[in-house]
Design goal:
The chain is an alpha/beta fold. The protein has one domain: Rossmann fold (3-Layer(aba) Sandwich), CATH 3.40.50. Bound molecules: NADP nicotinamide-adenine-dinucleotide phosphate (NAP). The site of NADP nicotinamide-adenine-dinucleotide phosphate (NAP) has 29 residues, from helix 2 and helix 7. NADP nicotinamide-adenine-dinucleotide phosphate binds next to helix 2 and helix 7.
């Protein structure tokens, strides 16, 4: 009992230097969680840590790390152990997409995307799950509405997100009686650094476009209420539903044609 009282539970948020992850870090902090911010750009993480400390009173732990590196998970574990904290919530948000035909894109970049979006996410989950189970915490995996349909013009990206959704759904069933919350956040388009890295133009008006804070707020609520699949926005829910029932011979050419218009390569 005495040992349990000294545990300092934290929420680890990957990809917290920008976009959805930075906003999720703000939402977790506002709700009283101590957070660990993980991404490569230390300066951006420190800026966010300053903001959270001044607005919420508790300074986040900053770990500047490339999660696609072979030693990354071990390095994060060491940082967490040295800080004397225990992982209660894990938010696997770090990820990126690149769009274009597989033959036109760099093979190395596509494999790096596969590594970060799936391998690192899985390795982090397997590493921290034992302590999350003990603390009856939760895991949020960030996928995408691209998880629900193959995407010609974003083939590897969509396949990584299908993996994330599949893994999350199966994991939630395996953990059903453990008290651990599992949630898969599946945003539609959100204006972040994602588009520049992906090589896509975001049209001025787009159905389902939501603000980053709305997406983070719904993601947090979904995790805390153990909602398995969280698709923010009515238009995104509707499009995901239609994608699921539409014959692929009709949907795939339409998606391919649309991606040709919005992709730069
Ligand atoms: N924006 C959208 O339209 C959209 C839609 C659906 C799903 N998503 C998903 O939402 C998640 C967050 O994306 P976002 O839109 O917020 O994009 P973003 O603004 O580009 O943020 C991506 C985050 O991931 C971090 N990151 C990238 N590579 C990393 C690496 N190797 N190691 C550690 N951290 C890394 C980045 O930080 P550093 O560069 O500092 O490392 C950044 O903090 C992604 O999984 C993305 O697939 C986005």
């Amino acid at each position: 009992m005495k040992a349990a009282a000294s545990i300092r539970p934290v929420a680890v948020i990957t990809g917290a230097s920008d976009g959805i992850g930075a906003e999720l870090a703000r939402v977790f902090s506002r709700n009283g969680h101590e957070v660990v911010l993980v991404a490569r750009r230390r300066d951006k993480l420190e800026d966010l840590a300053n903001y959270i400390e001044s607005s919420c009173g508790k300074r986040p732990i900053v770990v500047a790390l490339d999660l696609s590196g072979p030693e990354a998970i071990e390095e994060l574990s060491i940082n967490i152990a040295q800080a004397g904290v225990t992982v209660k919530y894990l938010v696997n948000n770090a990820g990126f997409g690149i769009f274009g035909c597989v033959t036109q894109l760099s093979p190395d970049e596509q494999l790096a995307m596969l590594d970060l979006n799936t391998r690192a996410l899985t390795a982090l989950t397997l590493r921290f799950l034992p302590e999350i189970i003990v603390l009856r915490g939760g895991i949020m995996n960030v996928a995408s509405t691209a998880a629900f349909i193959p995407v010609p013009g974003g083939a590897v990206y969509a396949a990584t997100k299908a993996y994330v959704a599949s893994f999350s759904e199966a994991l939630s069933e395996e953990l059903r009686s453990s008290g651990v919350k599992v949630s898969c956040l599946c945003p539609g388009p959100v204006a972040t650094g994602f588009q520049a890295r992906a090589g896509i133009k975001m049209p001025d008006k787009m159905p389902g476009l939501l603000s980053v804070d709305e997406v983070a707020r719904q993601g947090y609520k979904g995790l805390m209420t153990s909602k398995l699949i969280v698709i923010p926005g009515f238009a995104n829910k509707l499009m995901s539903f239609i994608a699921g029932i539409m014959p692929r011979r009709m949907s795939l050419p339409a998606i391919a044609a649309n991606n040709k218009k919005t992709t730069r390569v």
